[in-house]
Amino acid sequence: MQSFVSTSTAKFQSIPVASGRLLSLDFFRGLTVAAMILVNNPGDWGHIYAPLEHAPWHGWTPTDLIFPFFLFIVGVSITFALGRPDGAREGVIIKIVKRSATLFLLGLFLNFFPRFDISIVRIPGVLQRIALVYLACSLIFLKTTPRQQITLLVILLIGYCLLLTVIPVPGVGYANLEPETNLAAWFDRTFITPAHVYKPAKVWDPEGLLSTLPAIGTGLLGLLTGTWLRSNRSAAEKIAWLFTAGCLSTLAGLIWNGFFPINKALWTSSFVLVAGGLAMLGLALSYWLIDVKGYRRGVLPFVAFGVNAITVFFLSGLIPRIMNMIHVAQADGTEVGLKEYLYRSFIVPLFGNPVNASLAGALTFVLIWFGILWWMYRKNVIIKV
């Protein structure tokens, strides 16, 4: 992979990133995807360290930041993919729609597999939300200016806040932010129906319809960040203002939390600002260290995750399900899925603490994927969706 950046500088210089890719962006994407795989594949769902779990409702944990970080990165990536001279060529919108449809269908396939029961399949999901945010942000990027994008972001965040805190929920009679009686949950029950939402929640979906609107706001923060990074300003100015914007966004979200609580499941406006601000800070730090200062040690393993992000996310969700379809007999005569059998046989005996064993199982899964992705990276095998 070619870095379009000087690898060693005594002081900040202007960096031509109007085309090509930022190594720091691939690194940040890869770090996010690796973290996503880690939290999605514990050895034992009953034993997980608190920071690796989602907040029960209001509030946030490090795990809650992973998905919005990825959507933020989607927004940044759009500016590099569509901001090139050929970005406005005829047919680009058709390609955007096709890619969005592919992402949505991949997510739907994961929800179908292995039962393929259309009567109870979950329709929303992570890849489905990525598809919708990518579609909306791509079209917004092509059709609007950065000033208009800021205006749209403000309208989305304030409008969503008013929807959930002012409009009475049908059948309930008042606005509220409780799990099953808020307006977003009502939308899911009404337009998706309980049979097709997230089964543990039963009557609402964490990637539901209404909460996709502020999720688009997360993508818009990425668009604005990517546009800033692609500008002709000096690296010092880019980094200084990006750190400033990240701090201000995080602070604004924490203040808004007092009125509209940070909540990942509802994707509240305060959550958008806090997660988006922290993502700006993370990308700014990565950009400074990797693309400006030329720091490379420990970077490439995460780049390997980053360049095949959707592929590894999809397969890391599919393969464990296939493994658990293969039943293996245990010493007591019972049968368990192959994945669980391997975990119980080779991971659990090495750790006395079940929480440590669960974490070790997740890390083992990540390391296996690193081996696969590192080979793909060295062979320049990049699967584009």
TrEMBL record:
Q: Which residues form the Heparan-alpha-glucosaminide N-acetyltransferase catalytic domain?
A: 21-234
Q: Which domain of life is it from?
A: Bacteria
Q: Which UniProt keywords apply?
A: Membrane, Transmembrane, Transmembrane helix
Annotated transmembrane regions: 65-84, 96-114, 126-143, 150-169, 208-229, 241-259, 265-290, 299-319, 357-377
Secretion signal span: none
Q: Which Pfam families match?
A: HGSNAT_cat
The entry's protein name is DUF1624 domain-containing protein
